[in-house]
Amino acid sequence: MESYTRIWAVLAGFLAGFALYHAAFGFAGGWRRFVTEGSGRGIRAQMLLIALVVPVSFTLIAAGKTGGWVVPVGPGFLFGAAVFGIGMSLAGSCASGTLFVAGGGSTRMMIALAAFITGSVLGTAHVPFWLGLGQVAPVSFVRNFGVGGAVAITYAICGALVVLTLWLERKWNVQSAPAPRLRDTRLLRGPWHPWVGSVALAIVCIMIFVTLRRPWGVTEAFALWGAKVGIAAGLPIDQWTYWSGGRSRQLEATVLSHTTSILNFALIAGAFCASAVQGRFKPVLNLSTKDVVTAVIGGLLMGYGARLSSGCNIGAFLGGVTSGSLHGWIWALTAFLSFAAALRLPPMLMMRRLQNAPS
């Protein structure tokens, strides 16, 4: 990997962590507030992020300047997305949320991250089985409809979701807590208006498309970290089918040559800096049993599900949609439905509110 690529990965990851923390921007948090409170503000911020990225990403993909992730869908993919959604409801965060909240000092999210890594390794052991159940051919909007058509389809879906959330808020008479005013956004000290977070994260996505020539991803690194630890402990992980071919070279190389790992490390650093300037970096050590249990189970489920479904809210959903792939929307629908259903589980098993920061 060339040195400039590492530098861009560090810059993009740091900006991502800084933006995620200051804007309290998280896919799990936005979904949770919609399901439990009826507020669609977080979902609308996610749609704005997508709308800002796709004209650029689709153009780059069509011109052959960058690669997209167009993934086939099968039983394993759907099962993995559903499992991820359940895990997300238990842990109270998604993959990026786990990273930035952990970077912000959340001890509970550090536990969830360790479990996420473990679940990712377990998932790599079973990927061949799930792939063997069959898949449907992938669908690329860019390839089938061109850049203009793909952008129009994506905007139509995003617009429909925005209109739906606004209509439901009025129907349910939702009274959401006011967001920071746009004019009151403080770029260095925070907090940020959600739209500012969307713009910043759109810049991150475009930076990654241009410099790394691929979409933004998170969870692949978790599997790699866990595999390296397992091999060091004497487990024959390097003999598993998942780690054959090109992935075998990842096991042999340092994680600092792995761009997704660099992005994740920098993201944690960015979130740490954001929490520090806000004066909120205060790790809590006296966790309840429920905190620990839900973090562990949620992390394990997210890690396992992410490997089966080609990623998380960032890699599978955002990465898929900004690649013009149908699988991104299918992943989001499946994960959201399981996430919403899991929130109906007995309250003693759930963590409906994050303990330290929104995600």
Compact description:
The chain has one domain (3-349). It is built from 14 helices and no strands. The chain has helices spanning 3-22, 27-37, 41-62, 75-91, 95-103, 107-131, 141-172, 194-211, 219-232, 246-252, 259-277, 289-308, 313-321, 326-342.
Describe the structure.
The structure is a single chain. This protein has helices at residues 3-22, 27-37, 41-62, 75-91, 95-103, 107-131, 141-172, 194-211, 219-232, 246-252, 259-277, 289-308, 313-321, 326-342. The protein has 359 residues and is mainly α. Helix 2 (27-37) runs antiparallel to helix 3 (41-62), helix 4 (75-91) crosses helix 14 and helix 5 (95-103) packs antiparallel against helix 6 (107-131). The two termini are 32 Å apart.
Question: Which keywords apply here?
Answer:
single chain, 359 residues, mainly alpha, disordered C terminus
Strand content: under 5%
Tell me, briefly, the overall form.
globular
Mean pLDDT: 92
Number of structural domains: 1
Biggest sheet overview: none
**Structural class of the helix and strand makeup?**
mainly alpha
Number of helix segments? Answer: 14
Span of the ends, CA to CA: 32 Å
Any chance you could write out the topology, listing elements then pairs?
Elements (H helix, E strand, L loop, with lengths): L2 H20 L4 H11 L3 H22 L12 H17 L3 H9 L3 H25 L9 H32 L21 H18 L7 H14 L13 H7 L6 H19 L11 H20 L4 H9 L4 H17 L17
Helix pairs in contact: 1-5, 1-8, 1-11, 2-3, 3-7, 3-8, 4-6, 4-12, 4-14, 5-6, 5-11, 6-9, 6-12, 13-14
